[in-house]
Amino acid sequence: MSGLARASALLAAGTLVSRITGLLRTIVLVAVIGANASEAADAFGIANQLPNDVFSLISVGVLTAVIVPQIVQATAHKDGGNAFISKFFTLGTVVLLAATAAAMLAAGPLVWLTLGHRPAEQQALAVAFSYWCLPQIFFYGLYALVGETLNARRIFGPFTWAPVANNVISIAGFLLINAMFHGPLEQVGQWTPDRIAWLGATATLGIVAQALILLVFWPRTGLALRPDFRWRGVGLGTVGKLAGWTMLMALASLTAGIIQHNVASDASGDAPSITVMLNAWLIFMLPYSVIVHSIGTPYFTQLSEHAAAGRDDDVRTDIGRSIRILGFFLMGATAAVVAAAIPASRVFVVLGTDAPPAALVLLAYLVGLIPLAVLFIIQRTFYAYGDTRTPFFFTIFQCVLIVATAFGAKGLLDAGVIPLEALAATIALGQSLSSTVQTIVATWLLHRRLGTVSAANWLGGLLRFAFGAVPAAAAGWGVFLLLGGTSGWTMQSQLSGAIGAAIVGVATLVVYLGVLALVRTPELGAAKGLLTRFLPGR
Questions:
Q1: Topology versus the membrane, per the UniProt entry (predicted)?
Q2: What is the model's pTM?
Q3: Which one of 59, 245, 380, 463 is separated from 500 by 20 to 30 angstroms, measured CA to CA?
């Protein structure tokens, strides 16, 4: 358990620094291109999201689901997995180059899928940005290939810390661009070719650095990596069969996301739209990434080892323990972000009056935070057993719900039930509800497979944490009102919004921990053990 605690602490620290610098990166970007009701921001948001979407097909479709369990099994080979890794990396590099080239050729149609009904000038700007951003696909893939291999070899730190380099480079570049062009440039017509090149190249340069830094740590794996185009006879066929289902799953998720953004773009230039959704998701992902990634990743490696050894009882124990620990931290984080949603959203908009509508989008996403964390463990348990087919079906089910709720939001807008300002928030809420239903279905399917997942045990823990989160969120909201609420000093600037969000968040967490300490929640001890790993000398 101490090994998992050390790994979790290292990942949490790296993820926290990465996410904080990522937030700073977005703050600076808002100063360059705007956010709420900015057509230029939505054009760049779509272009910069394209490589992430294509990369998700590769990462979710192959790497996360397949490579960690397969590398764990390959270490039992006589060569320690060297042949498998060399062949897999050679094949992966070829696939990445082909995917990048294909995406570059299809830049126009890819943008049209999301912005086809928007003005031609906005589409043209998005296509111009995409030519600079799409090369990120190759470097995102390289980062994932190397990083997931390091994780599988229990070298957890570099994969998490590398994005900090990306954020630092981007922040410096965006500050330079802002000084050169005196942003924010929110109108499409303000973007000349030189300005497009500066912004696109800066965004891509950060991803290049993020990937190349990981190669410095490769010698620690003990693997001799070399080009090997002889792809037969080492088990890549098994990888292909497993990846087939996850690729289809990732493709379905990508399609659902494109439809969401297509519907949300109706509000582009007038109300919260794509960029606000992306920024709200960034805030949402701060607690998710810091907590779920740092704790869940080491558990996934352990789950894979226990599943490979046929130790089902240990797998069940891993599931319950990991969900309770994740729930302990995430419930407190949820309460803190709910209470601080408005000042936190102020960080990502130019005007204070834009913060409350943006906060509604964030709150809608937060509904699905705890279910998404549970799904992380449930889904990866299927992966640990080499089952990618079942996750495909319950993900398809979720995607159908996401598409239905997105079109439902558009129907409510057209019928006049919701205003244009609430379109993005309604779409986000639909996604959260869809994820919640997906998690329930996935848990039931895993229960059937393992006989039991001891759901009553970890659900009881989540209810205890909710008991502490409700009064904590109320106390945090009270602190926000004492600071002046929506007309107070926290709405005056991005900096004041960040300070206000921190004050509200800390107050919320203090109350949360106090309530759980009063009821003597057992997970407090385990949480303390994890947190002490951050202390110097530990």
A1: Multi-pass membrane protein
A2: 0.79
A3: 463
